[in-house]
Amino acid sequence: MTTPNQTPEPAPTLEELEAQERRLVFPRFTYDDAWALGSLLVETARERRAPVAVDIHRAGQQLFHAALPGSTPDNDAWIARKRRVVERYGAASYLVGARFRAKGTTFEESSRLDPDTYAAHGGSFPITVEGAGVIGAVTVSGLPQLEDHKLVVEALTHFLTQAQDN
């Protein structure tokens, strides 16, 4: 996050976003993994006093959901819209939006999808399992879109690094 005296860091490039997806792959993803990853996100958000909601879905089933102080029902609606983008495109919601912007347009203008149902804004990241592909999504809503995206990527990186070390 930036403070008022800092200039915001530049948005990641398409190549950086695509590299995140190649790197953040699970060997498997269980109910216990969903609980541990969701709990890690909640703990991180609490430490930062981030007013977010956190959601993890796998194969159409909600495995984890938490709403922290300062979040609103609107965040749940954003979660659903961002998650649908991941489910439809098999890519992070921020990456999908960035791909449209790289073509000189926006998701809303060019996707032909209902913006009340789909939102290519940062914060939803695919849960990809080796040999199976995208099986779900982990989503955060409540911060500016790049901050939502970065929070999820940070938690996934930490979780997968910790899993490798065990």
From TrEMBL:
InterPro entries listed in its UniProt record: PduO/GlcC-like, PduO/GlcC-like_sf, YBR137W-like
SUPFAM superfamilies: GlcG-like
A Pfam family matched in the record: HbpS-like
Gene3D superfamilies: Haem-degrading domain
Assigned protein family: Belongs to the UPF0303 family.
UniProt name for this protein: UPF0303 protein BU52_10925
Organism: Streptomyces toyocaensis
